[in-house]
Amino acid sequence: MGEPIRVLSLVLAVLAGVVAGLIILAFSYAYVPNDLERVSTLLRALDANEDQVEVVVFGSSIAMGGVDAGQFPVPAYNLGTTGQTLAQARLLIQELPPTVNTIILVLEAMSLEMNQGNFMVPDVYNAYWMNGLRIEEVTRNDLEEIFPDAAPRIFSMSSFDQLLHSRWNLMQAINRGGRGLVTDNLELERAATDLFYPYTYTKSITPEKMHVAVNRYASLIRDDTFEVSSSNEAIIRQIASYARERSIHLIAAMPPSHPGVQEATGDQYRVQVVEKLTRIVEEEGGQFVDGTQVFYDEKYFIDAAHFGHDGAMLFTRRLVDAWQEH
Amino acid sequence: MLFYTPEFLIFSLLLVAALLISQHATYRKTVLLLFSYVFYMWWNPAFILLILYSTGLNYLVGLKFGSPTASDATKKTWLIVALVLNLGMLAAFKYFGFFEDNLLYFMKLFGYEPHWTTVNIILPVGISFYTFQAMNYTIDVYRGKIPICRSPLDFALFVSFFPQLIAGPIVRASEFIPQLQKDVRMSVREHDFWLILKGLFKKVIIADNIAVFVDYVFANHQGMPSSIIWLAAIGFTIQIYCDFSGYTDMAIGIGRILGFELPINFRKPFFSGSISEFWRKWHISLSSWINEYVFMPMVLAMRHLANFGIMLAAVLTFCLVGLWHGPAWTFVVFGLLHGLAIAAEVPTKRIRKRIRKKLPEKVHRRIVVTTTLIFILITFIVFRAPDFRTAGSMVKRFILFDFNFSITGLNLGYAAFFSSLCLMALFTLLHLFSNKKGSIDDWLVAAPKSTKLLFAVGTGVFLTVFWPLSQTPFIYFQF
User: Concatenated DSSP letters for B57-116?
Assistant: First the structure.
């Protein structure tokens, strides 16, 4: 066989590998575990609505491990996901069944200050897309209005691009598997499948690591002035408007910070957080819950941001009381 | 444009189509030159002026050397003019900001508050590479080592041949210009296919995926245990090797398809038994250039200082090597450390020879290779660190091992830690394999058909499934 023909056959073999790779991507997503498989759990649960859910809680991993939705006297789901931004919450909100009458947003001061990076990374949207979510026009318009650069880029990806993009899943599966083997402080299964209290961390970190983590977390809050970024304020108002139109009660809650972080940022910072969020939420007809003082002891935290079980119970109690007040 | 982008594919198809129109050498060289200029202008059209400047300057100075009326003094003057203008361009674009920052620092140290506006100069991609390449021609013509290139087309193509324009290998005029004077014939060989595929795999699958973990550790190094610092150092070393050698493989493969032989740039550098051996195997085109045009002249000038002169030349040379990599003191210190290590080989030569005689060859080789590798890892921490504080903190934890192997609370699982470990292990296996059996591309050429097909299909699968979601630029593009 002439050399050019041989090379051509090898090039075709590589292309055949590419096609095989695409087939693997198409079929593997449903079977390969990843850090966003919780998305699949939530979408299926909302679609089936077996529990006739009335209260839903959104938020990041702080909400996941900080709120036991089972404590509510009515059916409630914890729809928190790792790193969930308000934009992601807005995306999920379009999937809420008509039985929902209360939306609870668990907010974080540091995330609320961010303008850049608070939309969603393409992997996250891809996870929703691969699990069957198709963005509605209203949701798309709402988010593109607030994120005119990032949102259209992600939402206008073709089906082929989304399929190709889902390759993040396979690399992440390796990391997830490795994490499960080596670390003994994670309940990954629970985090992925629990609709009520997807508590992930089973152990506190060591005091030395806590010290480093607290300093790192505090350093991310750059100064003692708190300002809600324009995009986050816009999403909160959008979610509030959505809730009002459907007679859904909106509760926005600020959880407690680690005492080390609070000390570093100062009480003035905390007061500003509460004041500014109260104003925004109440202007929109919602209810703001100041949970920042629910506890102020390191023993309620397992790291610089996440609560231990006792802390979660105290914070959940605060939310339930606030819901009952309404 | 990068070699593995759709734009480059279109560029290549158009280039091949244009080359097929005529077999005439001048026509083909003109096509290659124009396409090379388009390739360079893809980054920034204005940069073409710098290539034209470099081409024009060195071509004209070369002609001056050939003038029948040029005396030795005149030729020397022209050489100095050429070096000043070449290095001046490099200094202006690459080091102006560095000099300005340091000047401002010292002025503030002495209580002066300057009020001028700092100038931000965009670094033209590849400037370090083609400047050295062009200077090589000028110096070699001056020395009488190569004839003057009277064809402006040949010379322009020598300076700007696109496969090696942006990140080397730095091509010698003595090796490349004679190739331009033969027929320019394209050829597609199986070996070049495997070389390009190997380069793509190294860059995209290994380097770019490991980069996620490395970047995370360097950005969040406080609180990281020594074990993670070690892994990040190993990761970065593998990353920079795969990134750079991957690019070189692709450049060499593409060059060969177009009918040109480019020099090898890496020869298994991680199996070196000393730092001087490392630099004979790492970025060979740069180290041989530096050796010939900087180190040896320095040694000659300081020969009256005997061994001390050699040592001093090594230190100064490698400080310049460090500075070549970038306008930052961390790069200079990287170079300084390598210079000191090479300098230390001079007075310790006898002791090392005695030790070598006392140990079995294999044991000795393993010891020297391991110690050399550890030194390289430490210096690459300095190379990669954004500042001295990070470098110092990480090197300290590298050396004073804390035996803490816990990774809980470090969020490494979200920083591609385990996948990076797998890739580092894969790289190590492939590297050890190639050390025993020869280069993988050579091995594949000789392999049975079924093995070749398996590798080709497997690489296609890997590239599809593990192609990183965000592109990491080639590290050496910034140098």
Answer: HHHHHHHHHT-TT--HHHHHHHHHHHHHHHHHHHIIIIIHHHHHHHHHHHHHHTT----P
